[in-house]
Amino acid sequence: MSPDNYLYLSAILFTIGAVGVLVRRNAIVVFMCIELMLNAANLSLVTFSRINGNLDGQIIAFFVMVVAAAEVVIGLAIIMTIFRARRSASVDDANLLKY
Amino acid sequence: MTAVHLLASASHTSTHEAVVFWILGPLSVIGALGLVLARSAVHAAVLLAVVMLSLAAFYTAEQAPFLAVVQVVVYTGAVLMLFLFVLMLVGVDSADSLVETLRGQRIAASVVGLGFAILLIAALANGLHGFHAQGLAKAQADKGNVVAIAEKLFSTYVFAFEATSALLITAGLGAMVLAHRERLTPRLTQRELMQERFARGGAAVAPLPGPGVYADHDAVDTPALLPDGSIAAGSVPDYLQVSAARPTVDVTERELDQ
Predict the structure, then answer these.
(1) What per-residue confidence (pLDDT) applies to A85?
(2) DSSP secondary structure string, B20-86?
(3) Residue A97 confidence (pLDDT) above 60
(4) pTM of the model
(5) Do B21 and A56 touch (CB under 8 A)?
């Protein structure tokens, strides 16, 4: 087996996450799908690091994890705030800026 | 070990790694599909944990033990727990409705996703053709993964590292600001609470009788009896089914006769 297979797996996981973002309506599940996409990108970064023979890819994956942690905190706080105001976590219900 | 030999060993993984990949790879794809297809958000979170843990195993196999540990601690430990906490606050039973707001959105999204996957995989196959993996053996030769990462992180990437500290502090502050709620009415004192309780009337001054008082059972679903043998309302919580076999009234009458 060649390490390239990890890249194909990462592409598949990223696509599934993107489809989930398009399809799901529950804001929390949409957020989980975004996390899945970030994870898939991390897998490809680690594999690139291995293929190229230096550690920069792993360090960038580490930074992606840090930023993802900060992003989850803020995103979930926003979802909580919207839920408090509108009593719903569905992305279809937050349409005040539509018209 | 000659250079050619080294290249050959780096561009092809060991059998152990192939076994790990072909077991956990399909498992992670199934988990990701389940995350998209599961109706309950809690099921989606558990399936996401499956994907994240398989990725941690992949990192170990790809000579990145530090990232594997960070993946388990940060993603499955912290991020996923945060998701579950918010699910508890928002309501676990908030399942998605199956009604489509835009007609044909699901099919269109699936078709777009399939096309995107084909595009990505074709581009990867094209780009990786005839390319040999070098492996990390030289980069982390005698230092080990963690020391090699630390050396790079605190020299080349030290400004980015410092910037992440500012980012984390900003995120913490932002979460506090967003989650904060202003108190619109003054807090009631204990005296005001009591005045309100008795002003409404009908409140019991003493505690309500516990279940089973004066009855011949003291089980929680046996209502208390009043001195005249009738059942005291409020001695059994509403959510308890009062048991059908309740010989308490007869017993009390017998005792009264004696």
Answers:
(1) 84
(2) HHHHHHHHHHHHHHHHHH-SSHHHHHHHHHHHHHHHHHHHHHTT-HHHHHHIIIIIIIIIHHHHHHH
(3) yes
(4) 0.78
(5) no
Whether residue A55 and residue B18 make contact (CB cut-off 8 A), yes or no, is no
Number of H helices, E strands in chain B: 10, 0
Determine the pLDDT at residue B96: 63
Q: Does A87 touch chain B (CB under 8 A)?
A: no
Could you tell me if B114 and B108 are in contact, meaning their C-beta atoms sit under 8 angstroms apart?
Answer: no
B82 neighbors A76 (Cβ within 8 angstroms): yes
Alpha-carbon distance A98 to nearest alpha carbon in chain B (angstroms): 15
- Give the residue with greater pLDDT, B54 vs A25: B54
Q: Which residues of chain B have pLDDT under 50?
A: 1-8, 244-245, 247
Residue B211's nearest CA partner among B172, B188, B241, B181 is B241
Choice among A29-33, A73-77, B196-200, B239-243 with the minimum mean pLDDT:
B239-243
Answer whether B13 sits within 8 Å of A46, measured CB to CB. no
In one-letter notation, the amino acid at residue B191 is R
Nearest Cα neighbor of A50 from A12, A1, A4, A9 is: A4
Task: Tell me the average pLDDT across A14-38.
Answer: 93
Task: Tell whether A85 is within 8 A of chain B (Cβ).
Answer: no
Residue type, A67: V
Q: Cα–Cα distance between B123 and A98 in angstroms, integer?
A: 37
A7·B67 Cβ contact <8 A: no
Burial B55-89 (b: 16+ CB within 10 A, else e): bbbbbebbbbbbbbebbbebbbeebbebbbebbee
pLDDT in tens, A4-21: 899 999 999 999 999 999
Chain-chain contact of B179 with A23 (C-beta, under 8 angstroms)? no
8 Å CB contact between B76 and B56: yes
pLDDT of residue A7: 93
- Tell me what pLDDT residue B1 has: 41
d(CA B87, nearest CA chain A) in Å? 8
A61 and A42 Cβ atoms separated by less than 8 Å: yes
Q: Which residues face A26 on adjacent strands?
A: A90
